[in-house]
Design brief:
The protein contains 2 helices and 7 strands, in the order ββββββαβα. By secondary structure, the protein is an alpha+beta fold. Helix 1 runs parallel beside helix 2. The model is unreliable at 1-5 (pLDDT under 50).
Length: 107
């Protein structure tokens, strides 16, 4: 079995995304895998919020949604170690993906 291949899946952790010729990364994907031939991207946070000092939760979610469209990803995952997302992150995820995804939340 090759590196990054697990039971019919390919994965690459912490993948940096940048435009062709750009010096600065557009974003980093914590989750990038291809389970069963379907591209899945996502973010993993330990603190329960998608917001950072430079980016709001809404801006972060929109970046993922737009990148998913560009890459043709059929799944976007937002994962946290907390029991739940903070209110701003939950609202951003639900409003940005409500028409396009099936949300599965587990405690």
């Amino acid at each position: 079995m090759a590196f990054g291949e697990v039971l019919g899946s390919l994965f690459c952790p912490e993948l940096r995304i940048s435009g062709r010729g750009d010096q600065k990364d557009l974003m980093e994907l914590d989750i990038c895998c291809i389970p069963d031939g379907r591209l899945c991207i996502g973010e993993a946070k330990s603190n329960g919020t998608l917001a950072t000092k430079d980016v709001s939760a809404s801006e972060a979610v929109i970046k993922y949604r737009d990148l998913a469209v560009i890459l043709g990803a059929t799944r976007v995952v937002f994962s946290t170690c907390n029991e739940s997302w903070d209110h701003a992150s939950e609202v951003a995820i639900n409003s940005s993906f409500s028409a396009q995804t099936e949300l599965l939340c587990r405690s």
